[in-house]
């Protein structure tokens, strides 16, 4: 009997150890597969929270995002929203170098991918906004009856200049170059080009009469006073990529109130604000 008792005790011990092992592995598996920001998925705007949110936005979207930030702060005064704008490439490199931005809104997926490849964005918080833009050719208030077909001859006769975004850092420059290459015009227009670091610089040059022509987003053209420029032509959208905007949260600076503003940015109310500035629905 003594031997049987010892065997049965050993059996119970094995069962106990096996049970502990199974539950330990289940807990470990759950921990390993736990979402990066599970609590943020369920968050609602909380008036108890306070703090700052720093937004880096492509310059073409600055007016709309500034209005969205104002509306948000009226509703949640405990949250301070700071909005900075520049070319998407410039902003991406600032984030790469440690600039304390919480949210990045880019006019090109290229710069979202650039940061994502470096694991700098929160995995579940990268979303395209349901809007798009188009390119237009504009002239200063003295320029009329110029289009893509006669643009080169006009610039040659008048020793004129055309403002283009820098294709290495500015999405409007990427799209413009793509259009001009596909139109077999880039090599011809390049010697007349003044490359700028943001689309707003191009519209400022038009307003001041420092260049005769510019290729900009439609929404930036309409932000000018009608007496300051002439809309010459809407460029064929089949000759350049779809102009879409993507919003992402910077992983290192992801906080509860960051998610609050991000959720609001993607809301129907915020998208309607953006569309007021001439953006089209997707």
Structure overview:
It contains 12 helices and 11 strands. The protein has a 6-stranded mixed β-sheet, sandwiched between helices. Strands 7-6-8-5-9 form a 5-stranded mixed β-sheet. The termini are far apart. Helix 3 (62-75) runs antiparallel to helix 12 and helix 4 runs parallel beside helix 5. The chain has helices spanning 2-32, 38-41, 62-75, 88-96, 109-116, 151-158, 171-182, 186-189, 199-208, 218-222, 256-265, 268-275, and strands spanning 51-58, 79-86, 103-106, 121-133, 135-140, 162-165, 193-196, 213-217, 229-234, 243-250, 280-281. It has 2 domains: 41-132 and 243-281, D-Maltodextrin-Binding Protein, domain 2, CATH 3.40.190.10; 135-234, 3-Layer(aba) Sandwich (D-Maltodextrin-Binding Protein, domain 2). Helix 3 (62-75) links the parallel strand 1 (51-58) and strand 2 (79-86). It has 282 residues and is of the alpha/beta class.
Q: pLDDT average, as an integer?
A: 86
Shape from CA axes?
elongated
Structural class by sheet pairing and helices = alpha/beta
Order of helices and strands: HHEHEHEHEEHEHHEHEHEEHHE
Sketch the major β-sheet.
6 strands, mixed
Q: What is the CATH class name of the largest domain? A: Alpha Beta
Number of discrete domains? 2
Helical content, roughly? 40-55%
Query: What's the arrangement of strands in the largest beta sheet?
Result: 2-1-3-10-4-11
Radius of gyration equals 27 Å
Supply the CATH superfamily name of the largest domain: Periplasmic binding protein-like II
Examine the secondary-structure arrangement and name the CATH architecture of the largest domain: 3-Layer(aba) Sandwich
């Amino acid at each position: 009997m003594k031997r049987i008792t010892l065997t049965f005790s050993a059996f119970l011990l094995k069962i106990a150890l096996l049970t502990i092992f199974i539950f330990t592995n289940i807990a470990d598996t759950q921990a390993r597969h736990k979402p990066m920001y599970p609590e943020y998925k369920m968050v609602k705007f909380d008036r108890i929270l306070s703090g700052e949110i720093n937004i880096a936005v492509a310059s073409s979207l600055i007016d709309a995002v500034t209005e969205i930030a104002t509306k948000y702060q009226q509703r949640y005064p405990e949250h301070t929203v700071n909005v900075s704008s520049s070319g998407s490439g410039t902003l991406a490199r600032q984030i790469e170098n440690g600039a304390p931005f919480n949210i990045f809104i880019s006019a090109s997926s290229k710069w979202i991918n650039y940061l994502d490849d470096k694991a700098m964005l929160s995995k579940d918080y990268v979303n395209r906004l349901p809007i798009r833009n188009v390119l237009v050719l504009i002239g200063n208030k003295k320029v009329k009856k110029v289009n893509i077909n006669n643009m080169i001859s006009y610039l040659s006769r008048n020793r004129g200049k055309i403002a283009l975004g820098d294709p290495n850092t500015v999405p409007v420059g990427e799209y413009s170059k793509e259009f001009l290459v596909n139109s077999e015009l880039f090599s011809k227009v390049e010697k007349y080009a003044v490359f700028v670091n943001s689309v707003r610089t191009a519209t400022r040059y038009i307003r001041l009469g420092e260049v005769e022509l510019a290729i900009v987003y439609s929404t930036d053209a309409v932000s000018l006073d009608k007496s300051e420029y002439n809309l010459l032509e809407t460029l064929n959208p089949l000759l350049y990529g779809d102009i879409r905007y993507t919003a992402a949260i910077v992983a290192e600076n992801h906080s509860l109130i960051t998610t609050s503003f991000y959720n609001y940015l993607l809301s129907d109310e915020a998208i309607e604000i953006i569309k007021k500035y001439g953006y089209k629905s997707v």
